[in-house]
Amino acid sequence: MKKDNIIKKLLLWLGILVSPPLKGFAIHCHHDILAEYCWDYAERVESIKKDKPQNEQETRLRLFKILPKEALLELPLKYQKADEARPWQETYKARQEADKAWPQESKDAFHKKWCVPDCPWDGKRLVFEK
């Protein structure tokens, strides 16, 4: 086992280093959805590494994160309810409706507060360099 892994495990055990949440509302889980419920963070990371174009991977991985619970206070309830467990087609339709009802100005403020300053989000989707 590498020295770094031993130190990391020790810090986790001591409670000094906290592992990130593995599920919850996330920002930039997908390129065209600002916030959505992520059921399995590690699975999504693996999917990005395996299935997404090489030129998008670093940006996607850097921006994708589980949001803190405080962020939910600023996420419209209709948007949160859209991601309740149900068939994905219904979830997708409910999220589209919730997204239309979420004013762009409010969405932009949410993004500015909970994402990184140099994020290539254009208000509708992530814009990747070629």
Give a structural overview.
The protein has 130 residues and is mainly alpha-helical. It has one domain. The protein is built from six helices and three strands, in the order H-E-E-H-H-E-H-H-H. It has a three-stranded antiparallel β-sheet. The longest helix is centred in the C-terminal third of the chain and has 14 residues, at 88-101. The chain is globular, with a radius of gyration of 16 Å. It starts with a helix and ends in a 16-residue tail after the last helix. The mean pLDDT is 86.
Q: Quick one: overall form?
A: globular
- Structural class determined from secondary elements: mainly alpha
Report the total helices: 6
Strand order of the largest sheet: 2-1-3
- Quantity of strands, as a count: 3
**Average pLDDT, to the nearest integer?**
86
Tally of domains: 1
Taking all Cα atoms into account, the compactness measure Rg is 16 Å
Which percent range fits the helix content? 40-55%
Along the chain, the helix and strand elements come as HEEHHEHHH
- Straight-line distance between termini: 38 Å
Spans of at least 5 consecutive residues whose pLDDT stays below 50 are none
Q: Tell me the fraction of residues in β-strands, as a range.
A: 5-15%
Largest sheet: 3 strands, antiparallel
